[in-house]
Amino acid sequence: MANEPLMNETQETAHEADLQRYDKLLVALHWLLALALIGQLLLGLWMVDLPKEPPGYRGGWFNVHKSIGLVIAVLIVWRLGWRISHPVPAAVAAPGTWQHIVSKLNHGLMYACMVAMPVTGFIGSNFSQYPIKFFGYPLPRLFEPQPDMKALFAEVHELFASIFMVLIALHLAAVVWHVLVKRDGLLQRMSWGRAADQ
Ligand code: HEM
Ligand code: HEM
Q1: Which of 32, 138, 145, 164 could be bridged to 131 by S-S, CB 3.0 to 4.6 A?
Q2: Residue 54 to residue 19: CA distance in whole angstroms
């Protein structure tokens, strides 16, 4: 309808609250990152126990982890930028309830971990004596090798990984609760729907 006026601010706010689903790109990034981050966590946990022999074997997998981690970092920056610049559906839980507070806290802390994981990994790796090889291409180092700093950042990276895994487990438990017990269609909010459903 060519003559329909553009929405004013009040209508736009009402439109945001009416949204039933997350924006299509956020949905795509959510699922892509869910897969990539779970894979990256498993790869990290597996590779730290690899033997140092034959030479290059452990280091090779470390560089796979570092390279994928840097690609994931770009997707995370994209997701965060998109998230703060686009409306999202109103929370399922009523504001002020413990479910609302816990879900906001869980989502916020997962975003914090999404930032902390690549940042601590990248800084720690820059204190290592080995340069990061991004899919085989050595990146310039930011600092001189410092084993103490490398060890410190490895500890912090590991700590954030543990916190992140607990948050993801809580997130999954909440989704299962909504799907199996409450049956309130929560999963559909994080999926592509037909335009008519929006
Ligand atoms: C590494 C794994 C995952 C991470 C880091 C993650 C992270 C997040 C975050 C941060 C949000 C909040 C979205 C926002 O408001 O911006 C969210 C929402 C959501 N996630 Fe995940 N997620 C993961 C895996 C999963 C899986 C495996 C499922 C399904 C089984 C799932 C289902 C959902 C659903 C349904 C929502 C929407 C919740 C709502 O409408 O309030 N997530 N996820
Ligand atoms: C993007 C998200 C990332 C996740 C989820 C992740 C996850 C993990 C996990 C679970 C471990 C094993 C921790 C342990 O048990 O000690 C690990 C180790 C490691 N990660 Fe990451 N990582 C990420 C990004 C990165 C990036 C971008 C880099 C570097 C560019 C990196 C470098 C390392 C290194 C060097 C280790 C071994 C630390 C050690 O020496 O013990 N990670 N990572």
Answers
A1: 138
A2: 55
Q: Is residue 11 part of a domain?
A: no
Q: Is residue 135 part of a domain?
A: yes
Mean per-residue pLDDT for 64-88? 97
Q: Which domain holds residue 178?
A: 17-197
Q: Which ligand is nearest to the CA of 38?
A: 1
169: region left, alpha or beta (phi > 0 left; psi from -120 to 50 alpha) = alpha
Q: Which ligand is nearest to the CA of 42?
A: 2
Cβ of residue 65 lying under 6 Å from some atom of ligand 2: yes
Q: Is 150 within a domain?
A: yes
Q: Is residue 63 exposed (0-12), middle (13-18) or buried (19+ Cβ within 10 Å)?
A: buried
Predicted TM-score of the model (pTM): 0.92
Q: Does the beta carbon of 111 sit less than 6 angstroms from any atom of ligand 1? A: yes
Going by CA atoms, what residue is nearest to atom 15 of ligand 2? Answer: 45
Q: From ligand 2's centre to the CA of 53, what distance in Å?
A: 20
State pLDDT tens for residues 167-185: 999 999 999 999 999 999 9
Q: Specify if 27 maps to a domain.
A: yes
